[in-house]
Design brief:
Elements lengths: L9 H4 L14 E6 L14 H7 L7 E3 L5 E3 L2 E8 L2 E6 L13 H14 L7 H4 L2 E8 L2 E6 L6 H4 L16 H6 L9 E6 L4 E6 L12 E6 L3 H9 L5 E2 L7 H5 L4 E16 L29 H9 L3 H7 L6 E2 L22 H10 L7 E7 L6 H13 L4 E7 L1 H10 L4 E7 L5 H9 L20 H11 L4 H18 L3 E13 L2 E2 L14 E2 L1
Parallel strand pairs: 1-10, 1-11, 14-15, 14-16
Antiparallel strand pairs: 2-3, 4-5, 5-7, 6-7, 8-9, 9-10, 11-17, 12-16, 12-17, 13-17, 18-19
């Protein structure tokens, strides 16, 4: 049994008191978040924490509700004109925060800007990869042309924020971070932002979705879980996301607080690097027990990857790290997603079989490698890494766990600096194509459509062919069946190894209401006073 890994905040919480939100502050809301935006340019990164923060300021053409069901936003309707063309009818009467009217020209400008604004993770290119042109039919109608049939384009548009075409086409991060280019159509206007600190916003008059419930909103980045909960109890913040599971029971006893628990889209996944050249700096870290670099990459052997999966006790991680609130993951996304298998076969834990497979592959004494993960992006990321290190020791693998701040981890991971990583993946569009085309398909070169987040150099020609077919299939039933088959084959090949599906927990003042969202976004517009 794994030892308890998460550090409880009980000692901190015992010193704090909880009181209702003062009446004088009733129009102001302070939200404690584990991770704020990486900047204010909404096209810079695709990370969930980045998008969740900026959705308070910017809108997308298509929205999703708390269950990831699509609904109108800046577009009121959409239809496939033919296999390669989608038409979007735009909402009329919408204005940007600077008073400019929203038109089709802003949609065209935003889509075309994405490729030039992308940051280290590729930005939002993943959502525009199939788009070859945007045609303005009139001020409130656009047609988006693709190079292949793309049935999921409306879902892709839920993640692409619309910026004002009135800003300079060359506007970069500094112009957004200062507020000069941070002009959206969302419920709140940008006021100021401090990196790793506060994002301050104020109500945007005349918002098309109705008046925002708060005159001022501040997202307060507090990456330490105990400090974030203590901030809630001491009235530093009124609402907080990612409440650590170790404090759920404690907080439920607080009369002046309410907890909100829901399903999450995020799955922790292990990504072994499958590159062949052992002279690469990242792969030189894979050694025998004496510290000598191995002559070949062991992770290219299916038996080794199968052993990595068999060594993982998913139920133990769910219980020990997440105190029973997480769910063992047997595929690469939750079963409720479009294209996920509703009842995937259980992935077993078998230490003896894992040892036997390692011996068959030529590693009877195991080997050594470093495992890297983020420490402050999602709940339990660092603790899950530590748990994996302990589990792998049972099968003879010597693992050095390295939990790093997300700003370091994701940039280095994208560069290919790490031999094995563990990170959370969220299928943000609600459709399996978003995942399988992003990290199961072979990584294509610059401007390629597939493999944008394939950080482990996984490549399977059979799956590549199936993914391309599924992504171009407009028939929902056929596309769903293809995605389900792709997932089953991918899990069997163990190029990426699922671990657990995360829980999601918020807490706030008892005089507030909130509906938990599957995508885990904490949107001030949907936090209301009772």
């Amino acid at each position: 049994m794994l030892r308890r890994i998460l550090l409880s905040a009980a000692a901190v919480l015992a010193l704090a008191t909880a009181t209702p939100l003062p009446a004088a502050q009733a129009q102001e809301l302070r939200i404690g978040v584990r991770a704020g935006p990486e900047g204010i340019d909404p096209h810079f990164m695709a990370l969930g924490n980045h998008a969740a923060a900026l959705r308070n300021i910017f809108d997308s053409l298509v929205a999703v509700d708390e269950k990831l069901q699509v609904s109108p936003a800046l577009a009121v309707s959409w239809r496939a004109v033919d296999d390669l063309t989608w038409e979007f009818k735009l909402r009329q009467g919408v204005k940007f925060h600077d008073g400019r009217p929203f038109t089709a020209a802003d949609v065209k400008f935003s889509i075309e800007r994405v490729k030039d604004a992308a940051g280290p993770d590729g930005g939002l290119v993943i959502y525009t990869r199939s788009i070859v042109g945007v045609d303005i039919v009139d001020d409130h109608t656009v047609r988006i042309r693709t190079n292949v049939p793309n049935a999921a384009l409306p879902q892709d548009m839920t993640r692409l924020f619309i910026v004002s075409g009135g800003i300079a086409a060359t506007s970069k991060a500094p112009e957004f971070n200062s507020g000069a280019a941070a002009i959206g159509t969302g419920p709140f206007k940008f006021v100021s932002w401090t990196p790793r600190g506060d994002l301050v916003m104020e109500r945007a008059p005349g918002y098309w979705g109705g008046e925002a419930p708060w005159s001022k909103v501040t997202l307060v980045e507090i990456s330490n879980d105990a400090a974030r909960v203590a901030g809630l109890l001491s009235n530093r913040v009124d609402f907080a996301n990612y409440v650590p599971v170790s404090d759920i029971t404690r907080l439920k006893r607080e009369r002046n607080l309410t907890l909100y628990q829901g399903e999450s889209i995020y799955t922790f996944i292990l990504y072994p690097d499958l590159r062949e050249d052992m002279s690469l700096p990242a792969l030189r870290g894979i050694t025998d027990k004496a510290g000598q670099t191995l002559p070949r990459n062991p992770f290219r052997d299916l038996r080794v990857r199968q052993a990595l999966s068999l060594a993982i006790d998913r139920q133990a991680i769910a219980q020990s790290v997440f105190e029973g609130t997480a769910t063992p993951a047997y595929q690469l996304m939750p079963s409720g997603m479009f294209g996920a298998n509703p009842n995937p076969p259980r992935l077993p834990t078998d230490v003896n079989r894992a040892k036997a497979l390692l011996a068959e592959a030529g590693y009877p004494n195991g080997f050594r490698f470093p495992l890297f993960c983020s420490s402050d992006r999602l709940p339990g990321d660092g603790a899950t890494c530590t748990a994996l290190g302990q589990l792998y020791a049972r099968v003879g693998l010597d693992v050095q766990v390295n939990a790093q701040p997300r700003t370091i981890f994701f940039a280095a991971r994208t560069r290919g600096d790490y031999p094995v990583t563990m990170a959370g993946w969220g299928t943000l569009t609600g459709e399996a194509g978003y995942a399988v085309s992003s990290f199961i398909h072979t990584k294509e070169g610059p401007g390629g459509r597939y493999g944008a987040f394939n950080v482990s150099s996984y490549s399977n020609p059979e799956l590549d062919k199936m993914i391309a077919e599924a992504m171009g299939t407009l028939n929902d039933d056929k596309r769903r069946a293809l995605f389900q088959e792709i997932q089953a084959k991918a899990v069997a090949d163990a190029g990426q190894i699922p671990i657990v599906i995360l829980p999601t927990v918020w807490a706030g003042r008892a005089n507030l209401t909130f509906t938990p969202r599957t995508d885990e976004e904490t949107l001030a517009f949907h936090i209301r006073a009772r």
